[in-house]
Amino acid sequence: MEIKLKNKTKAALSTIAIALFLILIYAADNGMFSGSSWRMFITVIEKGAIFALVAASMNLLNGFTGLFSLGQAGFMLMGAYSYAIFTIPAASHDTVYQYFDGGIIKWSIVEILENKMGIAGHYLGIFLPMIFAGLLVAGVAYLIAIPVLRLKSDYLAIATLGFAEILRAFFQWNTLGPVTNGSNVLRKYTTYESAIFPVIIAGICIAIIFLLINSTYGRAFKAIRDDEIAAEAMGINLFKHKSMSFVISSFFAGISGALLAMFQTTISATPFTTQMTYEILLIVVIGGIGSISGSVIGAFLFTASAEWWLRGLDSGRWLGISSGIMRPGFRKVVFAILIMMIVLFYARGIMGDKEFSWDRFVNWWRSRPGAIKAWPDKLKANSEARKKARTAKAVAKAKAKEDKADSEKKKSSGIPLFTPLPMSDEVIIFDKEGN
Amino acid sequence: MKKITVLSLILMLAMTAFVGCGGGSGADEDTVRIGVFEPASGDNGAGGKQEVLGIQYANSVQPTVEIDGKEYKVELVIVDNESDNSKAVTAAESLVSQDVSIVLGSYGSGVSIAAADTFAKAGMPAVGVSCTNPQVTADCDVYFRICFLDPFQGTVLANYAYENGMRKAYCLSKLGDDYSVGLVNYFVEAFKELGGEVVEEQFPDKNSDFTSYVANAKKAGCDVFFSPVSTEAAALIIDQAEAQSLGMPILAGDTWDSNVITGAAKGKNVEIVVTTFYQEGGNPEFDEGIKAWFDENPEAVTNNGGNTDLAAVTALGYDAYFVALEAFKAAGSTDPADILKVLPTLEVTGLVCGDVSFNETGDANKSEAFVKKCNTEDGTWEFIKKQTAN
Amino acid sequence: MNLFNTWLPYILAGIAVGGQYALIAIGYTMVYGILRLINFAHGDIFMWSGLIMVYLITVLPLWLSVIVVVVFAILLGTTIERVAYRPLRSAPRMSIMISAIGVSYLLQNFALYITGGLTKTYPAIRFLQKTVAIGSATTKMVTIITPFLTILLVFLLVMLIKHTKIGMAMRAVSRDFETSSLMGIDINRVITVTFVIGCALAAIGSVLYFSNYTGINPMSGAMPGLKAFVAAVFGGIGSVPGAVLGAFVIGIAENIIKGTGWTTFSDAFTFVLLIIILMIKPTGLFGEKDIDKV
Amino acid sequence: MDNRQVVLKLSDLTMQFGGVVAVDNLNLVLHKNEILGLIGPNGAGKTTAFNCITGVYEPTNGSIEINGEIVIENYPKGKMKEEYKGLNAGKYTKSLVMLPDKITKLGVARTFQNIRLFKGMTVLENVLVAMHMNQEESVFGATFRSRKARREEKAMRAEALELLEKVGLYENRDDLSTSLPYGKQRHLEIARALATHPTILLLDEPAAGMNPQESDELMKFIGEIRDKFDLSILMIEHHMQVIMGICEHIYVLNYGGQIADGTPAEIQSNPAVIEAYLGGDE
Asked: What does the DSSP assignment read for A368-425?
């Protein structure tokens, strides 16, 4: 009993879902709901969107190109800094760069553009440095790619991890203080005002990654992931495509870094450790390596659990249960155990390597337990439809057998001609394939 | 089937978020909540916990407050900011979302700076307990603090060093740590002005090998080893100083006024001098009270590092709690906005670490720091003098 | 002579920490040699060995604590192998590496919970922490003992690998995993023994390391772990003498860098070294070339 | 002599791994539209020779000429200088390397002995991947679906489907490549190789694992694609029935060295070949 929706229906459903989501965020962000949980909801949405973007970018590398890279935190760090440095208002430079005589950059792009173009300049002033952050990171990533991409899987992982650590030390270096503020936090830079902003930017970027993956270049990436040698034999230039994936992934990591800077309102190099890269990697794993929608879902789940739902485990009361073992740190233990369970018993993650599709969603929704109970009148219709489908399937199968035999015959007689096959083989069984 | 299990699990979690936390927000009418924004883990975990102890002790001493003629029970909402600037924002947000009336904290300036904008956005008054970096209150209307500042402390330390004949200082700070880098900076500024000479170095995150830094200080022929770093690193530095016979006093700021240091230095041939907020024995009543409280709460002793020696930040935490209560009384309301209005003019007396009033940036008006020296024989602090910036 | 005296403390420190890295690096190099897996959790096993010692010393005498620590590390390591790596052995390489990262995350977070995020002070082993003077430098006894003990242990290990049956099996498995299993070598046993050796050495390393740098927190294992791994790569992964040499090189170089005032980059340097060696000689100093079968 | 155009020429090709000479002084000529067989016992170095031609390995000594141009050439260098056991040590002085993707772009396509399909992809996608190298649109245009990209994609799909139809995989186009039965996977590999628009096709044991009837079909199929796509084919095969039935000329390798070459009839009666096969491990 499978339903196939029309493309128009799918598009409409997507539009409605996105619109509802944005309205919900807008409403919650502007305090239209009472109850302070909504504040936390907004925080989780913002942070989740940012991590969804960086997870998707990591998935592009690890899941779609098969490059096990662990440099994502370093690239985020760089993106965050290059955004922040150029948007600190001139008046705040003395406070921010308090140990470096106000730094060497005494202006803010946002202010310059604002003076010229008003409010449009303000947004352009946020947007341009963000893009610049992405481009700068992409450029550095290209330089790193030249030596690093020659390495095999695990060496690559450790080398990229090393580069991230080097970047971190570099940004904390006192000598660069007039630009990076050394070990001290950068703050007071321009940030977004509405939670809609990171959601939309991250959404657009993820959509671009999605489009890329479904282009011929995306196919080339997947080919490299599946079999480097065969891909090369198909005329795919390994270095060109690997570095392309690496650079594009870094670009988006840079953008997400800029968004993270805006979210946090202060930025310092300290938190961008290997630990952070591991967390991004675990998001990718939870969502499913090779599924962009999985990474998005994973990011929101991870953020919500870590920052919100499981916080009670640290303070001794969770789900109404109070216990002495729930003291600070317990949340992280539970969390780590959950992740290990996913890694060991559920290695494909939430989405496997499938993407979200309305077809599957609708079919899953109909097949969930309780669905039939909920609409008893549909029960009969369903069973009838199922019976009908079964007969249709049987007929189709019989026909397919004939066709197969037919085509076999044709093959033996030379190059067979096209014979359309009934659609019965295309039935998607969600529980088996998409679990 | 698996899918359904996972999904129901997720749904269950999601429910708890709204139910669990939401349940909290619908608190009793007669309860007022104080948010405690402190690290319980990470680099500053030890100090953060000691600061929380002071607040908790104060809460046990004075669990209620009378606001506008009505008796309120005071409830503490404690979150862990993990000593991590990126986690600090969400931790702060979770406090705001739990309807606290005022926030106290944090130990370590970085997290306070990171959270300042979140509190500002929510109009939530915050009182810094031991965050000494000037940036915490600068450009932030909601942040106040009851301790002195790094420029002041740096100058005090430089004065002390110069007055005691030290002319060349080795300054060690931790890369990426605003507190130590900032304090070293002010120290260097003041020390150079006095005519001293300095050697500056920084050690990277997660470093535990201080052999070479100690060797560097010896090589450079310095007279004093200034390293106002976290207590974690401090213990390792003391250890190496002993192993290599450093031969010069170690000077540090308020973070070192902790039993971690006295514990590490006990029985070792090192000289440690610190500046701090609180003079032990300055208020015997408080000292005795908290020791008795420790006796009743074994968990508090664990959080204090396994013994009942007092840290300065515990005393400051105690003071911060009472500042918050006074703010409630003065505002006559539990609404953050009302509290914010009365804070700039608030004056609190009778505290353990000296009276508190705020200047226009929101900093406490404090003009002297206590200089203490570690007695390495019995592992206690000895009061030396009160030192001013001039 | 003067120059020597100036640099002596750095070199001594470098040799000591190098020896400690070496003991960790052996675990990395052996596991990688056989399973082709970077055991990201190895550094955390090292950290846990130190942590357990802190708790044990309160109830047991010193000598017994050390033994129990070694046994604990072995149990922890083999359990991790059995639970987190063995089921994934036929899975893609990335999965098992992710599993290793997951285990590392779990071990660190569990340590965070147990310690409450506070740094624990390692128990004083008076004999190791005694101050001694060498030339112009004074240092701890452990600094002197470490390189000798390391070399002795490595010598024993090399003997074991060269001259015992299990050692032979290990060499065979590291050369060709599949063929060896077809030849009737009990792969699981070989892997278990590898983990036993690696973890035991890491535990001994932890006693030396934490006697020298006495603070333990949940992140204490991460940096030494990464550095030891770099050492293993430097020496040619799979090669025990290579890992030991690499560890000493990294330990000494790191301390000399600190001595020259580039302290900001003392950790970053390790990774620079890694990238340079991978560029020039991807198989490390003593590594063997691996030819892809097509 | 054969006066057809020479499309592929191996001269003194030697490949030595450490102390093992896998391919020893191989000289081979492939003419246009010829079907050439490369046979020999296991471990004779046939696949290694393929890997040298396609740029996977860098040969130790010798040269490879494609369509009249030397594209790969090497001589023993460094440590190999002393270790080198092959012939013609001083003959070559240039070091020309070409990566596999460039070789493919020159019109040399191959299949693999142990099928190397892209596992995560459908049959159609497998073929589409092979067409990617001819795409002109940049990654930017392709991502944002420029008009050119859409046109190219459409053309690719049409061509791929046509190709699948020709090899009899049209019905399976949306199946996962690994879900195909073994024989069809072999066909898909060939289709994929054809999608790169080759002039020379290297087939590595295309009939492996097939029953006599299937290999008969395969033989016909190979002949057909040769004509249809104007190919020159070099194939490694163990099925003597296939080799003898289809190849115009055969080279025999043993222990890396070339022991004979000639027409199928000549090979069948060559004593050295018989010796190698009877005395060898087959």
From this structure: STTHHHH-HHHHHHHHHHHHHHHHHHHHHHHHHHHHHHHHHHHHHTSSPPP-PPPGGG
Our count of domains for chain D comes to: 2
Chain A: nearest CA to D110, how far in angstroms?
A: 7
Verify that D72 and D55 share a domain, yes or no.
yes
* Yes or no, beta carbons of B231 and C119 under 8 Å apart: yes
Answer yes or no: do D79 and D211 share one domain: yes
Q: How far apart are the first and last CA of chain B?
A: 74
Nearest by CB to residue A212, choosing from D119, D143, D152, is D143
D259, D133: one domain: no
Residues of chain B with CATH 3.40.50.2300: 30-148+285-358, 150-276+369-388
ipTM higher than threshold 0.90: no
- Please state the CATH superfamily assignment of the domain spanning residues B30-148+285-358 in this structure: Response regulator (3.40.50.2300)
* CB nearest to A68's CB, from C88, C94, C268: C94
| Alpha helices, H only, chain D | 46-53, 79-83, 100-105, 123-131, 139-143, 147-167, 182-194, 212-229, 240-246, 264-268, 271-279
Question: D163 and D231: one domain?
Answer: no
**By the 8 A CB rule, do D101 and D130 touch?**
no
Q: Do D168 and D229 share a domain, yes or no?
A: no
Domain housing D69: 1-107+198-282
**CB-closest option in D105, D118, D175 to A227:** D118
Sort out which chain A residues have CB atoms less than 8 A from B46's CB and list them. Answer: none
| Contacts (Cβ under 8 Å, ≥6 apart) of C75 | none
Architecture of the domain made up of A11-360: Orthogonal Bundle (1.10)
Which residues of chain C are at the B interface, by a Cβ-Cβ cutoff of 8 Å? 6, 9-10, 13, 16-17, 112, 116-119, 121, 129, 131, 137-140, 212-215, 217, 219-220, 222-223, 255, 258-259, 261, 263-264, 266-268
Rounded to whole angstroms, the Cα distance separating D58 from D72 reads: 8
The helix (run of H) or strand (run of E) holding residue D72 is strand D69-74
CA dist., res. A190 & res. A200, Å (int): 18
Instruction: Measure CA D217 to chain center.
Output: 20
CB contact under 8 A, C113 and A336: no
Contacts of B93 (CB under 8 A, 6+ apart): A39, A40, A43, B118
> How far is A107 from B82, CA to CA, in rounded Å?
34
Fold of B150-276+369-388: Rossmann fold (3.40.50)
pLDDT per residue of chain C (294 residues) written in tens, 0 to 9: 577 777 888 888 899 899 999 999 998 888 888 888 888 999 999 999 999 999 998 898 888 999 999 999 999 999 999 999 998 888 888 888 889 999 999 999 899 888 877 788 888 887 877 778 877 777 888 888 899 999 999 999 999 988 888 888 888 888 888 888 888 888 889 999 999 999 999 999 999 999 888 888 888 888 899 899 999 988 888 888 899 999 999 999 988 888 887 888 888 888 888 888 888 887 788 776 555 545
Same domain, D190 and D218: no
pLDDT digit string, tens, across residues B289-347: 888 998 888 888 888 877 788 888 888 899 999 999 999 999 888 889 999 988 888 88
For residue D68, the one-letter residue type is G
Kindly determine whether residue B89 and residue A263, on different chains, have CB atoms separated by under 8 Å. Answer: yes
Scanning every residue of chain D, which has its alpha carbon at the shortest distance from the alpha carbon of C288? Answer: D18
Model pTM score = 0.87
- Is A99:A177 a contact under the CB 8 Å cutoff? yes
Return the residue in C175, C280, C294 with the most chain D beta carbons within 10 A, the one to mutate for interface testing.
C294
Distance between CA atoms of residues B75 and B92, nearest Å? 17
- C291/D47 Cβ within 8 A: no
Tokens of D173: 């186009």
